[in-house]
Specification:
Elements lengths: L1 H6 L22 E6 L5 H13 L3 E6 L3 H4 L2 H8 L17 H8 L2 E7 L1 H9 L5 H7 L5 E5 L3 H5 L1 H12 L3 E2 L3 E4 L5 E5 L3 H12 L8 E6 L3 E5 L2 E4 L5 H12 L3 E6 L11 E4 L3 H12 L4 E4 L6 E3 L21 E3 L3 H6 L6 E8 L3 H12 L3 E6 H4 L4 E2 L2 E4 L2 E4 L3 E2 H16 L1
Parallel strand pairs: 1-2, 1-3, 3-4, 4-5, 8-11, 8-13, 11-12, 13-16, 16-17
Antiparallel strand pairs: 6-7, 9-10, 14-15, 17-19, 18-21, 19-20
The structure holds cytidine-5'-monophosphate.
């Protein structure tokens, strides 16, 4: 298994040849997973599996208390590596397991991180293997706190968390919710999948650091009456994936979103709108202050000119279908691109045929530097997509894959064009 991971080289996810798994976002990374004593230790087993599935190599280090909850055998079987538990391991050649282990790691991830671990790390204590290698590290430290609500809220723990953040330690969570002790509140460890995603985000190159990025996503809904309307099919997944990828790349992201069932990615400011007119207003209010504008939304081209304030009754018209007069909606992207000092504008062209021709024509018509083309049948509503980027240099097809991998490749391309 480890050899397979090594074979995958260090290619950028989603941005190169087709035989690289775009889901292996942690390939080539060596993660030292510290497990401390807490009931959430069982979730670290699932986390180990997810880290390996993402291409990482995982070395588990357990504290004495952690071994009361889960045995090292579980982690050894999952990671394929012996689990380290002892500062005084005579089996290690130079008897300096703490130095050897932290030297090799790309990051130390402690999950669950107990209140005791946070206190030790905040004060530089080093009385067991994990705390010692944390003190001796040169790589980043991420920790997912997990403890009872009162322990987390205790001013001592809050002080420790504050000092760790000030020292550059990335604290992941904790979440709010039901706790093993039967109480409910803040202190629950994030789910394994959330920790994995936070780690992947942490490793993304910060190619858009501090850039102000505005993005539209989802459909718009144009009212006919209080219960009916005109809309476009759009799940919003591509736009939300882009918002997430841009935020991971260090951008300050504002997402103006039509109605979707999706949650805003972490760190993204989301403004909810319904109609194209509302989307236009929210975008124009912010466009001049933005450095990048990405229009992913499937904006309805037309809206009913006179929406009814009461529900239209079909029986009043004796079977005659009503005529709905339509009015053109503003082209948000074209209007932003026409501003005196426009942000770097990126458009999307979802076509059912002649992609290259229509996308290139749209790029010129809207006077934008970059347009992202996709065939509707490749991406609508699904988790995967196939995109081609069209800019002044020509067409750049990206290998088909998950929307988040394509979003990261697009973010890298935008950063390249901006530089
Ligand atoms: O002209 P067309 O709708 O095909 O162009 C698609 C691109 O323009 C997408 O980027 C879409 O978000 C944007 N657009 C817009 N406002 C509209 C229509 C489309 O911003 N009213």
């Amino acid at each position: 298994m480890m050899n397979d991971v090594d074979d995958l080289s260090s290619t950028t996810p989603g941005a190169s040849s087709g035989n690289v798994d775009p889901c292996a976002e942690l390939r080539g990374k060596r993660i030292l997973l510290g497990v401390t004593g807490g009931i959430a230790a069982y979730k670290a087993a699932e986390l180990t599996r997810l880290l390996l599935k993402s291409g990482a190599r995982v070395q588990v280090v357990m504290t004495g208390a952690a071994m009361r909850f889960v045995t090292p055998v579980t982690f050894q079987a999952l990671s394929g590596e012996p689990v380290c538990t002892d500062l005084w391991d005579a089996g290690v050649g130079n008897n300096m397991a703490h130095i050897n282990l932290s030297r090799d790691a790309d990051a130390i991830l402690v999950a669950p991180a107990s209140a005791d671990f946070l206190a030790k790390a905040a004060h530089g204590l080093a009385d067991d293997l994990l705390s010692t290698l944390v003190l001796a590290r040169e790589c980043p430290l991420l920790a997912a706190p997990a403890m009872n609500r009162q322990m987390w809220e205790n001013p001592a723990t809050q002080r420790n968390a504050q000092s760790l953040r000030a020292d550059g330690v990335e604290l992941l969570g904790p979440a709010c919710g039901e706790q093993a002790c039967g109480e409910s509140g803040a202190g629950r460890m994030l789910e394994a999948q959330e920790i994995l995603e936070a780690l992947i985000a942490f490793f993304q190159p910060k190619v858009l650091a501090k850039k102000k990025l505005l993005i539209t996503a989802g459909p718009t809904f144009e009212a006919i009456d209080p219960v009916r309307g005109i809309t476009n099919l759009s799940s919003g997944k591509m736009g939300y994936a882009l918002a997430r990828a841009a935020s991971e790349a260090g951008a300050e992201v504002t997402l103006v979103s039509g109605p979707t069932a999706l949650a805003a990615p972490p760190g993204v400011l989301r403004i909810d709108v319904v109609s194209a007119a509302q989307m236009y207003e929210e975008v124009m209010r912010r466009a001049q202050d933005s450095e990048i504008f990405i229009a992913v939304a499937a904006v309805a081209d037309y809206r009913p000119a006179h929406p009814a304030s009461e529900k239209l009754k079909k029986d009043e018209r004796e079977g005659v279908p009503p005529l709905i007069e339509l009015q053109l909606n503003p082209d948000i992207l074209a209007e932003v691109a026409a501003l005196p000092r426009p942000p770097f504008c990126v458009g999307f062209a979802a076509e059912s045929r002649n992609l290259a021709e229509y996308a290139a024509r749209k790029r010129e018509a809207k006077k934008i530097p970059l347009i992202v083309g996709n065939l509707i049948q490749d991406g609508l509503g699904g988790e995967n997509n196939a995109l081609t980027l069209f800019d002044a240099a020509g067409a750049h097809p990206l290998p088909p894959g998950p929307k988040i991998a394509l979003a990261r490749a697009l973010v890298a391309h935008i950063a390249k064009l901006l530089s």
